[in-house]
Design brief:
48% of the residues lie in helices and 7% in strands. It is built from three helices and two strands; from the N terminus they run ααβαβ. Strands 1-2 form a two-stranded parallel sheet. β1, α3 and β2 form a beta-alpha-beta unit. It is globular.
């Protein structure tokens, strides 16, 4: 969930310092139009297509609806999924 953006940035830093490339969804506090949101969602799916695995930052076990959709998309592509907190 983007409500954990600071935690996501901390995890991303660790992943990159461990020698791995990390792609994050775009975050903005600017109001976006429906077409901009659709475009960013599409681009995030494109990122999922090219990555080796996804790492879910699920603080207190929370996984939002968008993240659930991303997990399902990654599963459909047979991508490994790792979680910050075990489910």
């Amino acid at each position: 969930s983007m409500k954990f953006i600071e935690d996501m940035l901390t995890v991303a830093l660790k992943i990159e310092l461990d020698g791995n490339c990390c792609l994050l969804p775009i975050y903005t506090n600017k109001a976006l139009s429906e077409s901009e949101i659709m475009c960013l969602n599409k681009m995030h799916q494109e990122k999922i297509k090219i990555i080796d695995a996804i790492f879910v930052v699920n603080i207190d076990g929370y996984i939002g609806n968008s993240t659930k959709k991303e997990i399902e998309f990654a599963k459909s592509l047979k991508k490994p999924i790792f979680y910050l907190e075990n489910n």
